[in-house]
Design a protein that fits this description.
Helix 1 crosses helix 5, helix 6 runs antiparallel to helix 9 and helix 6 runs parallel beside helix 10. The radius of gyration is 20 Å and the shape is globular. It has one domain. Helices cover about 75% and strands about 0% of the residues. The protein is built from 10 helices and no strands. By secondary structure, it is an all-alpha fold. The mean pLDDT is about 85.
Length: about 270
């Protein structure tokens, strides 16, 4: 694997952003709307509660971390979909580009765009609503790392689904975070879920993150064991999703579907 092709994939995305400023707007607009909306909700809840619960820390902090995960996942898939929309796959893979180099280029693009979104969210939440996000201390590192790894895994899996079933399956990508959010307990403990939903939650690394975050904000201890389990689970899921992407890619190349990728559906 060479770094130059990885840089080339990232450079192409950079040129797309600089060539069309409209593409830059979503990196700021949606995260800003989420933070402002939930910021005012938490401020209202603070005024009508007895102040025993830190709504800003629990709710606004959860929104910030979930948005970070969503931006990571969509950073991978959006960069992939740029090649879908422009029908650019044959051009890319007519070169000596490998699948691992291509995926790393997508991941690198996701990191760059997500860091910008995270900076905007932190600035708004801290300056406007007084969120003390760094009060979580050193626990913040494994929290963000777990969400980052799972976001990459889900982004690669969503890209594999679109590659396998064609551009018409693009609609699968966007609602994935929303479909998972009831299971991971972004705003409520997993104990409130029915048994079958808790079983699903234990397979999703973000569930461990939000449970640990609530425990810390409630004055509890940091559970290193559960976070190590979450990191191991997210790492295994990245490997599994990358394997799935490679399998799908080899199939569409072998069957010639890649050359007909402008079709609305791929059989």
């Amino acid at each position: 694997m060479k770094l130059r092709p990885v840089g080339g994939i990232m450079l192409r995305q950079f040129y797309l952003f600089t060539g069309s400023p409209v593409r830059v707007l979503p990196m700021f607009a949606w995260v800003a709307i989420d933070i402002v909306l939930w910021g005012f909700i938490t401020r209202y809840l603070d005024t009508v509660s007895d102040h025993r619960i830190d709504f800003i820390g629990r709710l606004l902090g959860a929104v910030l971390m979930w948005d970070f995960f969503t931006r990571i996942m969509q950073g991978v898939t959006t960069a992939f979909l740029e090649d879908v929309w422009s029908r650019n796959f044959l051009n890319l893979f007519a070169t000596p580009l490998t699948i691992s180099e291509y995926l790393l280029g997508l991941i690198g693009t996701s990191i760059a765009t997500s860091l910008i979104g995270l900076a905007v969210m932190l600035a708004l939440a801290t300056a406007v609503f007084g969120l003390s996000f760094f009060a979580l201390g050193m626990a913040l590192a494994p929290f963000l790392l777990t969400l980052f790894l799972f976001g990459i895994a889900l982004g690669v899996l969503a890209s594999a689904l679109v590659l396998r079933f064609g551009p018409a399956s693009e609609w699968i990508v966007w609602p994935l975070p929303a479909l998972l959010s009831p299971f991971v307990g972004v705003f409520y403990p997993l104990a409130t879920l029915p048994h079958w939903m808790r079983l699903v939650a234990y397979a999703l690394p973000p569930a461990y993150v939000f449970e640990a975050m609530r425990a810390l904000l409630a004055g509890g201890a940091f559970s290193s064991g559960s976070m190590l389990a979450a990191l191991a689970l997210a790492s295994a899921q990245i490997a599994l999703c990358a394997w799935a992407f490679v399998r799908v890619f080899r199939r569409v190349v072998r069957t010639g579907l890649l050359a007909r990728y402008s079709a609305e559906s791929v059989g």
